[in-house]
Amino acid sequence: MEVSVHTRIINLTARISIVLSILLIAPSQNAQDDVLKLGATLVNVPVVVSDRQGRYISGLKKDDFTVYQDGVKQKISVFATDEEPLNISLLIDTSRSTHDVLGNIKKSAIEFIKHLRPQDKATVVSCDHEIKILCPLTGDRKTIENGIKSAHEPKRFGTVLRDAIEMVVHQSFAGVKGRKAIVMLTDGKDAKSHLAADKLLDLIEESDTMVYSIYYETFPDSKVVAKLMPRIAEKIKNNAAQKNIDAVEFLQEVSDDTAGRVYKSATSDLKKSFDLILDELRQQYFIGYYLDETVTGKDVHRITVVASPPDAAVRARRFYKIKSDESATTKK
């Protein structure tokens, strides 16, 4: 009897050793999934949900959203609604074309910072033929205001608006975590940027920075135009009108790609618009899903977000562009 019990103990010990060896050599499926997720690409999608009157819809849960990549439903792995401090870049257009409205632009920028909360930070950047950082990212309101007041019209012509947006995304917001947005006060016209419009759109598709625009309509100096021959004056006016149309379309495209908005200064209650912008930034939903690494041969993916309320209007990031290093990994 004693031998039998002893033998059973030896056999049981051997079996436990075998099981432990297997567990050590072959990790569980859950462990493998965790390793895969650690090496996977998380796609962040800021989402704003409003009703038909443009009022923000709060209180939605993870199950109220569905995310599609190229028409294929994705598993939502990250969902956050916590209110966080904001990081704002005020991009002020100081180019010669804004000569008649620059005073209003600066007043609007100063008004905007009054709507920030103590925990929020802002940087001030001016844009004309060159880009200037008038104030680094800070929470000090006086420093921000002084940065705005220092913006001035240059002697040289030119506007590098697209380059300025790139600089903010890559430099001013480099390493900055949390909620980020560029608020542009501009006439939307660009001249002499090195970065082409399509390249800029590719850039912001890769960024989690939202872009809002306050548009100021501008025209050539009417007194100067009036002194020209009628045919030339009419041509200049028509050309300026078309440039304004193109500018609005550009700003709209940039904002649409980042889930932002465009407001026209002449038709908007700017104080109300500023409150709407900041409310959206503070109360937006953050959704994340892991990029499907089995998808090959495609570097740009269309993102569609649907919310369950029947009357909900959803604004969200529309594209994800795979970076070169991710693309190489995916196509192996």
Give a written overview of the molecule:
- The protein has ten helices and 14 strands.
- It is α/β, with parallel strands linked by helices.
- The chain folds into two domains: 40-82 and 285-330, Immunoglobulin-like (Sandwich); 86-281, Rossmann fold (3-Layer(aba) Sandwich).
- α6 (197-205) links the parallel β8 and β9.
- α5 runs parallel beside α6 (197-205) and α6 packs parallel to α8 (230-258).
- The longest helix has 29 residues, at 230-258.
- The radius of gyration is 27 Å and the shape is globular.
- The termini are far apart.
Quickly describe the structure:
The protein is of the alpha/beta class and 332 residues long. It is 40% helix and 25% strand. Strand 2 (65-69) and strand 3 form a beta hairpin.
* CATH-assigned fold name of the largest domain: Rossmann fold
Per CATH, the class of the largest domain reads Alpha Beta
Put simply, the count of helices is 10
Strand order of the largest sheet: 7-6-5-8-9-10
Q: Which structural class best describes the helix and strand composition?
A: alpha/beta
For the record, what is the CATH homologous superfamily label of the largest domain?
A: von Willebrand factor, type A domain
Q: Give the H and E element order.
A: HHEEEEEHEEHHEHEHHEHEEEEH
Rg over C-alpha atoms, rounded to the nearest angstrom: 27 Å
- Would you count the extended β strands for me? 14
Approximately how much helix is present in the residues?
A: 25-40%
Q: How many structural units, i.e. domains?
A: 2
3D shape: globular
What is the percentage of strand-forming residues? 15-25%
What's the oligomerization state? Answer: single chain
Mean of all residue-level pLDDT scores: 83
**Biggest sheet features:** 6 strands, mixed
User: Uncertain runs with pLDDT below 50, 5 residues or more?
Assistant: 5-10, 12-36, 327-332
First-last Cα distance: 62 Å
What CATH architecture of the largest domain do you see?
3-Layer(aba) Sandwich
